[in-house]
Amino acid sequence: MPFRIIVEKRVEDVPKWLPAATSLGAVVLAFLICGVILELIGGDALRVLRFFYQATFGSWGVFSDTLVKATPLILVGLACTVAFRMRLWNIGAEGQFYVGAFAASLVVLVPLVSPDRPKVVILTAMLVMGLIGGAVWAFIPGLLKARYQVNEIITTLMLNYVAILWNNYWIFGKWSEGGFQMTPTFARSSWLPRLADYAREIPAFAGITLHLGVVFAIIAAAIVWWVLYRSRWGYEINLIGDNPQAARYAGINISRNIILVLMFSGALAGLAGMSEISGVVHRLQERISPGYGFTGIIVAWLAKLNPFAVILVSILFGALILAGREIQPSGLPQLLQGIILFMVISSDVLLRYKIRLERAVVSKP
Amino acid sequence: MNLINILHAGLASGTILLFATIGAILAERAGILNLGVEGMMLVGAMAGFRASLITGDPWLGLGVAMLAAGALSLAHGLVTIHFQADQVVSGLSLTFLGTGLALVLGEGLTGKTVALVPKADIPLLSQLPFVGPVFFTNHSVLVYIGFLLTPLVWFYIHRTRPGLHLRAIGEKPEAADVMGINVYRLRYFYVFVGGCLAGLAGATISLSVSPGWYSSQTTSGQGWIAVGLVIFAQWDPLRGALGAYLFGALRRAVLDLQGPRTLLGLANPFFFNSNLVFFLQMTPYLLTIVALVIGSRAAMRKRLGAPAALGVPYIRGERGL
Question: Can you give the pLDDT at residue B303?
Fold first, then answer.
């Protein structure tokens, strides 16, 4: 071989553009691999890709649908970002999402606030309940981890199943509408405003489903950014994540932060549930999430735990979920997500090592 | 519904968790945490079912299931051993990848029936009172394989030289390396073995315990319960088996409690208010958490627990990558 591959540890700082470039490369490569798999099992990858583009970015109408799907992903992605920064593996965002949706629904279904009250009051109550619901659900694994060092990966995950079954109990039973697994549609006073609501004033908004939840998501991203990069608490979170030993010597209360960070994370996921209930579904029902909680994990990682990158990545994954509902075979979006995540973590090796080709020295005998 | 039937069915259902748990114990003993068990089980269930459908041979199905899941686990091996990626994230992505692969390649399998792993009685032992009908009668051969596997793996880990090497690379890989053990190669090997056993666990579902392919419902979180059981078992195969059979029996009980009109002479609440079944279905997941708390507290008290190098990539000084 005339060339040798040299692998050496990076001593100098990683160039600023490299993390973004490797992430982008990972996504492109993942699409290629998925296309090859699709061709191998007899599909038409190019047709699927064209369909994917048409169904997600093809017009303002579908792009708004993409953003609607991206909204819960941004919030859940932020939830994972906060926890992962501290190396807390909250993979229970799915359950926190469901409990947030459930708690927000209580406002309408119990009702905690009369439907005749002003919209602002009802929506604020739902918002607060969503935040609390998610935070409470995440408090359980937080407490177990802080007190008994119980692995949070398994507890958060197990609580996903519990949350979904809990929701099922209510929608199959007490609040079922005529035996269907869903509650009656909520009164309009509990719907988040949508652009389509203003179609009379601005005709271009007709049929645009984008709702106020996306504003919540962007504000949440700004708050998370501020917490992580500008606040003392964020400094503690990052320090515990990077070096728990040093954090302990610095006198940071790790147990308290475990609980607080998980609750913050859960509250964001719960807000996603509230936004979905109030902005899209308008009732509590089965399968309100096509796995947002899990996709959020990938979103956070692909965004390299950067809150604003989470927004961009969420739009891509929102598109994936939107188109995925109609793409056959049905597991394809999930497969693509798995490959993307694998490519991203594999490409991280490029950030730690330099790989270069070197002409091999041919030694003559 | 009598005790013998419940225990009998519980053993069969526990065999699923047993294979997955023992596989995870072996990989974690080698220092590699693999959270992809759920994904590997799904791939195993799908591959085994499809292979048995095509060839009509359930044994070939088991082999294909093990190889398919084993091959998948090597992706985790490469990323965590050579690329030194975070094992948690890599394991998660393995679950996504495995689930996606299984769903894509499992298209059209739902509703099909295939040749299943045969059932058998153990001569003599099946004649014993009570023990015979529970443990040694009319079980799938896989259940008996599980009975044998548990003590064998325990013996292997604790009493043999390769088992010592396994513990060494999970506790102190530098020292193992100095002793001349090839840490990288052995870690790949045990990740692969763990994958194979997860695949076997998946095929145990689709080719024996609840035959068929029900897309992601096939495993319904059992892979995650297995990962939790490893902690409950404190990385000991015997305790792992105990946990696996307990949870297997529990899963069966959840199904069986819904049927009869009366329980212990009282009206069965789950029969008359079918919505209460949702609470019944929560129990395995809630009890997994309880088991974790028990395992974690015991580990704290005894100051032992996870293999010391679990989750830590080993970087050989001069090799770099």
Answer: 62
| pLDDT exceeds cutoff 80 at B191 | yes
Q: Which of B75, B276, B321 sits opposite A353 (nearest CB)?
A: B321
Note whether residue B315 is domain-resident: no
- Token duo for residue B201: 């666990």
Percentage of residues in chain B having pLDDT higher than 90: 61
Q: What is the pLDDT of residue A360?
A: 63
Alpha-carbon gap, residue A341 to B90, rounded angstroms: 8
Average pLDDT across chain B, whole number: 90
Of A89, A162, A349, the CB nearest to B286: A162
CB contacts under 8 A, B 243-272 vs A, are none
CB contact under 8 Å between B285 and A37, yes or no, is: no
Contacts B279 to A, Cβ<8 Å: 165, 169
Looking at every residue in chain A, the average pLDDT score rounds to: 90
Q: Looking at the partner chain, which of B99, B102, B292 has a beta carbon nearest the beta carbon of A155? A: B292
Instruction: Give contacts of B221 with chain A, Cβ < 8 Å.
Output: 157-158, 161
Number of domains in chain B: 1
Percent of chain B with pLDDT over 70: 97
Q: Is residue B117 part of a domain?
A: yes
Q: Does B99 touch chain A (CB under 8 A)?
A: yes
Quickly count: other Cβ atoms within 10 Å of residue A131's Cβ. 23
The minimum CA-CA distance between B77 and chain A, rounded to whole Å, is: 11
The complex's ipTM? 0.89
Shortest CA distance from A301: residue in chain B: B89
Contact B225, B209 (CB under 8 A): no
The answer as to whether B214 is a domain residue is yes
Return the CATH number at B213: 1.10.3470
Say if residues A356 and A6 touch (Cβ distance below 8 Å): yes
B274 — pLDDT class (breaks 50, 70, 90): confident
Give the residue extent of every domain in chain A.
1-41+331-365, 59-328
Q: Per residue, what are the HEC states of chain A? A: CCEEEEEEECCCCCCCCHHHHHHHHHHHHHHHHHHHHHHHCCCCHHHHHHHHHHHHHCCHHHHHHHHHHHHHHHHHHHHHHHHHHCCCCCCCHHHHHHHHHHHHHHHHHCCCCCCCCCHHHHHHHHHHHHHHHHHHHHHHHHHHHHHHCCCHHHHHHHHHHHHHHHHHHHHHCCCCECCECECCCCCHHHCCCEHHHHCCCCHHHCCCCCECHHHHHHHHHHHHHHHHHHCHHHHHHHHHHHCHHHHHHCCCCHHHHHHHHHHHHHHHHHHHHHHHHHHHHCCCECCCCCCHHHHHHHHHHHCCCCHHHHHHHHHHHHHHHHHHCCCCCCCHHHHHHHHHHHHHHHHCHHHHEEEEEEECCCCCC
CATH architecture of A59-328: Orthogonal Bundle (1.10)
B284 CA to chain A: closest CA distance, Å? 9
Mutate to test the interface with A, among B84, B89, B273 (most CBs of A within 10 A): B89
Poorest-confidence range of A134-143, B6-15, B99-108, B301-310? Answer: B301-310
Q: What's the confidence (pLDDT) of residue B321?
A: 38
Q: Which domain range does residue B237 map to?
A: 3-302
Separation between Cα atoms, residue B125 and residue B131, nearest integer Å = 8
